[in-house]
Amino acid sequence: MAQQFTHFKRFPPPESEKPSLETLQKLFSLSPNDFGDIGGLFSKFSNLLPRHPPPAVLPCANVQPAQYSACEKPGNKACSACKLVSYCSKECQTAHWKRHKRVCKNPMRSSDWQPSWDAENCAPFFMEPSEDEKESLNGGSALWGNMPAIDLINLNANEANARKDFSLAFVASGDLRHVMKTINSLPDDYSGKLDILINDGNGYVFCRNLVLLLILGCVPDENLAADIALHFWYSVFFPAEYRTRICWLVTAFMKHCVDSTTQGKKYPLGDTSNFATPWLNKEHRSYLQHYMFDPDMPDSAGIEIDDAQAEYTRVRMAPSRKEYRDTMYTGLKPSHRVAFYEFRRYGIVLPLGAPNSHFNCANSSLFSLEGRWLQTDYADPLEGWNTEEVIQSGKTHGAQVEDIYGCLYFFLSTHLRTLARRIRKFHISFKLFSVEACALSKHIEENVFTGMGIASNTRFDRVEVSNILDVSYVGTRQVLTAWSPFLRQNKHAAIVGYYMNWFMVQKDGRVQGAGKSAMEQATKQLLERNGVDNLKATFSQISPDIRNLASLQTKIVSLTMDMDTMYENSKPFEKYLKKEKLDTVLRATKLKLRRQHKIVPHVSAHCSASR
């Protein structure tokens, strides 16, 4: 019997592919010390495949969920109107039109679409949510990242030695995007060893990173490993077969952790790589069990699919945030508005025309133990990656730029396959921690982790500290004081971080606070880029009616953001660092601020300190 589920007609996994009731009941009754008794319980389910294989190229969009059918041919003829989906033939396009017209004729795709306050001919209210709602719309975790991934080694611009061993520390890692970018940027013939420390004080982030490494290192088929990892990382729903595989992987790992013969030893990731963690506390075990167990079973962890959709919709479509969403949509092209809206509805990273009825399980790792969405209402997978690279990857696989999340799917699939392959090929040792960043350095100094090969004399070639340099987090002095003793002494070694919020406390950090001359210069550059006629056309569309002052305000805000891209704020950033007394901190820690950035060369507002 198919489940009728809000936006999709989903079908359940075949009974023959589900763990038996006896197996699940035994799992739910286990304490952590019992995992040694269940070695073979999930082994027979480890080769399950979803009903539709991961798309290698853009698929034909002729999907009929009511019949559980989908054309299996590539889609190479884009809809000429929206370019959000493609078909293999005119016949498939005609057959699918009844379903596709909801997207193609979406009012948001109209060139004269207006935000709600214009459409209703009233001033925007920008309703402030209540304090309780503010808290409920922000789960407090950043599971997808909020800045594009960086290559922490940048080998060609630095050591330029494909045989060199590297020791890297991501001390406030967030997700694995920086790790993946760094490993994948190495040459194919790299033959050195990588020792990678990954730490995040958020237990949810730590456990998700752990499971991602298990998937990428232990699922034999790298294409399947990449697809499971992609949806575990970014999609709100995934196939039941993927959940079963994750359950099997986590069960095997937890058995390793409690078995007296393997406890504390490295866990293999293929033949050449491994990872270790010094502990799994009660909180971590609860999170891992939350990912594992079937929510249809009594007393299990996890979240029901209907509950997950309801919670996702509650946060993503909160009425109090409608005008904020409309403000974001005003800056997008018509088809991109629809693409962003569709992701907000469904939460699945796939080409828009790909079959998804088999995504019939909730991804519990994106929800708290209490069933709450863990991130903000505006969290977006695209923020962690370079948009130009995402679009180029999509085009290579047949996707149109309008289907931006389809492009993201192919981009992530490509990189996750590469990472899975390199984990099997390169010699990589991952060490996972979940400690506050400065406390971790203290533990290392006290030789707490010598059993893992990390001691007070350990030195790293790179230390990536994310944005904890911000005064609203840990701060420059504390971070550099904590981690400078562990930086290797050579000209390439560096501590790399960035200041995400510095412009909020530095008056001239943005163009509107920089004075008349800076505003005029930025305006001149913007006019040169966009043309005077385009700017006039933008404002000529606004009615002089006093009720449409909101439209003018929105245009001005958008224009100011564009002007910020024209504004050279390196000097204000230097003033900010001076206020932070960076020179004093550098002298105390015996570090130097690099004047030429050779690790992240295209970014100016970050800090790269070296010996």
UniProtKB/TrEMBL annotation:
Pfam families documented for this protein: DUF4470, zf-MYND
InterPro entries reported in the protein's UniProt record: DUF4470 (IPR027974), Znf_MYND (IPR002893)
Entries under PROSITE patterns matching the protein: ZF_MYND_2
SUPFAM superfamilies in the cross-refs: HIT/MYND zinc finger-like
Domain of life: Eukaryota
Keywords: Metal-binding, Zinc, Zinc-finger
Domain named MYND-type: residues: 60-104
Molecular function as annotated in GO: zinc ion binding
Keyword Metal-binding recorded: yes
UniProt-recorded name of the protein: MYND-type domain-containing protein
